Amino acid sequence: MRLNDIRAAYDLVAEDYLAILRHELVAKPFDRIALSAFAEVVSGPVVEVGCGPGRITAHLHSLGVDARGEDLSPAMVAVARRAYPDLRFDVGAMTALDVADGSLGGVVSWYSIVHTPLAELPAVFTEFARALTPGGHALIAFKTGDAVHHLTRAYGHDLSLDVHWHPVDAVATAMTTAGLTELARLTRPADEQEKGPQAWLIGRR
C-alpha cells in the first residue's frame, strides 16, 4: 500500500515539482560537490533511482556520466521525458531494478530513500549492490536526523506522505550490511528552504 500512496502523491505533484526544483542545484554548492565527486569515481552506466522529473540525471549527464533515470511515478517519468528528451527515463521501483546482476557502474539515490523506514534500507541497498559491477559505486542522498515527519501538503498540493530522516551512521551501516563499502560522506546544516540537515554517502561494491 505504501508504494501505491507514494506513486499517487508524486503523480499528483509531478509538474509543479519540476517547476519548483529544476534549477535548485544552482544555489547548492555542496550538493554539486557530492554529485561531482561521484561523477569523478564512477565508470560505466548509471541509473538514478527515484529520478523524479530528471533534473539530477540531467546534471550527471552534463558531468559526462552515462546516466538514465527510473521512477515509481509514471507522471514523473513523463515530465522527465519532456524536459530532457535526449535522455532515457523508465518507470521502475528501486527495490526491483530491471537490470542484470553486475551490469551497472553506478546507482544514484537522490533523496529517494526518504519514504523508506530505516529497517528496510538494507534490502534496498542489497538490490543496489546486486545491480552494481564489482567496484561499482552508489551515491545516497538523504535527510539526516532520527524522526518521521508526516506531510499533508507539498509542491502546492494536498497529499499524505511520511518523510524519514535517518541518522548518517545508521544509513552507512545499512550500506555496509548490503555489501557496499563506505568511501566518503558529506553533511551540511539546513539552508533557508530546508527543515533539517542533509547528508550524502558514496559507497563501493
TrEMBL record:
GO molecular function terms noted in the UniProt entry = methyltransferase activity
A Gene Ontology annotation in the biological process aspect, one of them, is:
methylation
Domain named Methyltransferase is located at: 46-136
Keywords for the protein's UniProt record, in alphabetical order: Methyltransferase, Transferase
Query: Entry's Pfam families?
Result: Methyltransf_25 (PF13649)
For this protein, the record's InterPro entries field holds: Methyltransf_25, Methyltransf_Superfamily, SAM-dependent_MTases_sf
Does the record carry Methyltransferase as a key word? yes
PANTHER family under this entry?
METHYLTRANSFERASE (PTHR42912), METHYLTRANSFERASE TYPE 11 DOMAIN-CONTAINING PROTEIN (PTHR42912:SF95)
Q: Tell me what this protein is called.
A: Class I SAM-dependent DNA methyltransferase
**Native source organism of the sequence:** Actinokineospora guangxiensis
Source species taxonomy: Bacteria, Bacillati, Actinomycetota, Actinomycetes, Pseudonocardiales
